[in-house]
Design goal:
Blueprint lengths: L7 E6 L2 H14 L11 E7 L4 H12 L6 E9 L4 E6 L1 H13 L6 H4 L5 E5 L4 H13 L4 E4 L2 E7 L4 E8 L3
Antiparallel strand pairs: 1-2, 1-7, 3-4, 3-6, 4-5, 7-8
Helix pairs in contact: 2-3
Organism: Sandarakinorhabdus fusca
Protein name: 2'-5' RNA ligase family protein
InterPro entries: Cyclic_Pdiesterase
Length: 171
């Protein structure tokens, strides 16, 4: 148990080439003053900060025995004032579902509402700017496949996040 009550965020890390691609796109399209965290796939937005040890134990139990899930980058979607890449991964969906089942009493409504894997590369811009970004990215989009080598635990610090560790899938 941790004494720090600030919320925990759980994300899926992508393979280094995919991560680098999404990081470059965030640097290009995200307003610099708002780009405070790395490109990521949010699995849970708010787990109780005092449950850090229990969260780590559950991640190790669920993820440790499994191979890295495959993730398809299948397209782009409008966020209204931003753009995200849509991801598809039945394996990651199942892992996220198993984790959620074990954390039902800890989940906020946003994390109970379902899961649609994506990576946001632009947010908090005008609708016109987001529309132009979406059209530009769609014009050159080619679907690709990557993997999730690990899940990362972060502490929310009022904007930026503090990295608290990673739990790797079986190599």
């Amino acid at each position: 148990m941790s004494d720090d009550p600030r919320p925990l965020i759980l994300t899926a890390l992508l393979s280094p080439p995919a991560q680098a691609k999404f990081e470059a796109l965030r640097r290009e399209f995200f307003p610099p003053e708002r780009n405070q965290v790395p490109a990521h796939v949010s699995l849970f937005h708010h787990l109780p900060g005092r449950e850090l040890a229990a969260v780590k134990r559950r991640l190790q139990a669920v993820c440790g025995p499994l191979p890295p899930p495959e993730v398809e980058v299948v397209g782009l979607k409008s966020l209204g004032q931003g753009v995200a890449f849509q991801l598809r991964s039945p394996e990651l969906d199942n892992i996220r579902g198993e984790l959620a089942d074990g954390w039902q009493t800890l989940l906020i409504p946003q994390d109970r509402a379902g899961f649609r894997a994506h990576v946001t590369v632009q947010n908090k811009v005008s609708v016109a700017e987001a529309r132009a970004t979406l059209q530009g990215l769609q014009a050159g989009f080619v679907p690709f496949v990557t993997r999730v080598p690990a899940l990362a635990i972060w502490r929310y610090c009022g904007g930026p996040w503090e990295a608290l560790g990673q739990v790797a899938f079986r190599g």
